[in-house]
């Protein structure tokens, strides 16, 4: 398989409705500029066949703060010819300990989703 | 409360402690389909059962995209804990406003889930 992802922040998108990884989901990572109160996009990518999106952020760029992972889930379901209750999913989280690894999966179906902080 | 019940409801549950999330601040936004601008429809606080009646009236509940925002970190802080999620926003699309829509939030300090209920 592919080499391990060196990004301290990883994700994994799973289509729990069909029991498969969600491939070709556009994902973007943003960090909040707390002085200006605006979101800056750090990276954008697409999930691979395994539902993963490598290289979200480098260790160097991974500073403490408020982050947002945005998943274009509505487009994913549309490309499969189906509708979904959610046009997109955004997960906003706070990072204080940047030496740790953070795994933020998204388990989703057309009418539900869940996420958790993994490692 | 007078008037017919809201066609949109929520229920916030603290799955870590097995209790409803009471006193959680939340807000509902509606997106203007022509400008994509969001407008605030209502703000509220969950009651002892984790519910917030009266989110929206049938009259203004039109088809379109909505966003419900839950002040999750504030809730956990009020009970002396931190939360990985400063807030949770759930955006959803209403195509048939004649139906009832239940958008619950099942929440712990490090996880959450939601589903379309009725």
From TrEMBL, chain A:
Q: Where is the Transthyretin/hydroxyisourate hydrolase domain?
A: 4-118
State the compartments where it is located. Peroxisome
| Chief location | other
EC nos:
3.5.2.17
**Biological process (GO) annotations?**
purine nucleobase metabolic process
Residues holding substrate: 12, 52, 116
* Class in the EC hierarchy, top level: hydrolase
Q: Which Gene Ontology CC terms are recorded?
A: peroxisome
Does Oxidoreductase count among this protein's keywords? no
- Entry's NCBIfam families? hdxy_isourate
Q: Which family does it belong to?
A: Belongs to the transthyretin family. 5-hydroxyisourate hydrolase subfamily.
Its assembly, as annotated, is: Homotetramer.
Q: What does this protein do?
A: Catalyzes the hydrolysis of 5-hydroxyisourate (HIU) to 2-oxo-4-hydroxy-4-carboxy-5-ureidoimidazoline (OHCU).
Q: What name has this protein been given in UniProt?
A: 5-hydroxyisourate hydrolase
UniProtKB/TrEMBL annotation, chain B:
Which SMART domains does this entry report, sorted A to Z? Answer: TR_THY
Q: Which GO BP terms sit in this record?
A: purine nucleobase metabolic process
Q: Where does the record say this protein resides? A: Peroxisome
What are its E.C. numbers?
3.5.2.17
Is Mitochondrion tagged as a keyword? no
- Which key words are in the record? Hydrolase, Peroxisome, Purine metabolism
Q: Name one GO cellular component term.
A: peroxisome
Q: What pathway is it annotated to?
A: Purine metabolism; urate degradation; (S)-allantoin from urate: step 2/3
As its record notes, the protein acts as a catalyst of: 5-hydroxyisourate + H2O = 5-hydroxy-2-oxo-4-ureido-2,5-dihydro-1H-imidazole-5-carboxylate + H(+)
Report the residue ranges that make up the Transthyretin/hydroxyisourate hydrolase domain in this protein.
3-117
**Coiled coil segments of this chain:** none
Q: Quote the record's binding site residues for substrate.
A: 11, 51, 115
Q: Which GO molecular-function terms appear in the entry?
A: hydroxyisourate hydrolase activity
Free-text function comment from the UniProt entry = Catalyzes the hydrolysis of 5-hydroxyisourate (HIU) to 2-oxo-4-hydroxy-4-carboxy-5-ureidoimidazoline (OHCU).
Into which family does the record put it? Belongs to the transthyretin family. 5-hydroxyisourate hydrolase subfamily.
Q: How does it assemble?
A: Homotetramer.
Q: NCBIfam families this protein is in?
A: hdxy_isourate
Q: What is the protein name for this chain? A: 5-hydroxyisourate hydrolase
């Amino acid at each position: 398989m592919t080499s391990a992802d060196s990004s301290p922040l990883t994700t994994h998108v799973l289509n729990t409705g069909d029991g498969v990884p969600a491939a070709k989901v556009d994902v973007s990572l943003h960090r909040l500029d707390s002085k200006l109160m605006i979101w800056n996009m750090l990276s954008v990518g697409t999930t691979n066949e395994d539902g993963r999106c490598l290289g979200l952020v480098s260790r160097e760029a991974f500073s403490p703060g408020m982050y947002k992972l945005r998943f274009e889930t509505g487009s994913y379901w549309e490309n499969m010819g189906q509708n979904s209750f959610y046009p997109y999913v955004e997960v906003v989280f706070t990072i204080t300990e940047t030496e740790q690894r953070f795994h933020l999966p998204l388990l989703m179906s057309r009418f539900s989703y869940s996420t958790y902080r993994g490692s | 409360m007078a008037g017919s019940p809201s066609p949109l409801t929520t229920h916030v549950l603290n799955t870590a402690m097995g209790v409803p999330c009471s006193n959680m601040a939340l807000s509902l936004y509606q997106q203007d389909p022509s400008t994509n601008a969001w407008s605030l429809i209502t703000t509220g606080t969950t009651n002892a059962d984790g519910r917030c009646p009266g989110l929206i009236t049938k009259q203004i509940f039109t088809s379109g995209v909505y966003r419900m925002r839950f002040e999750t970190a504030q809730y956990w802080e009020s009970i002396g804990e931190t939360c990985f999620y400063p807030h949770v926003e759930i955006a959803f699309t209403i195509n048939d406003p004649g139906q009832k829509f239940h958008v619950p939030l099942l929440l712990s300090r490090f996880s959450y889930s939601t589903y379309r209920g009725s």
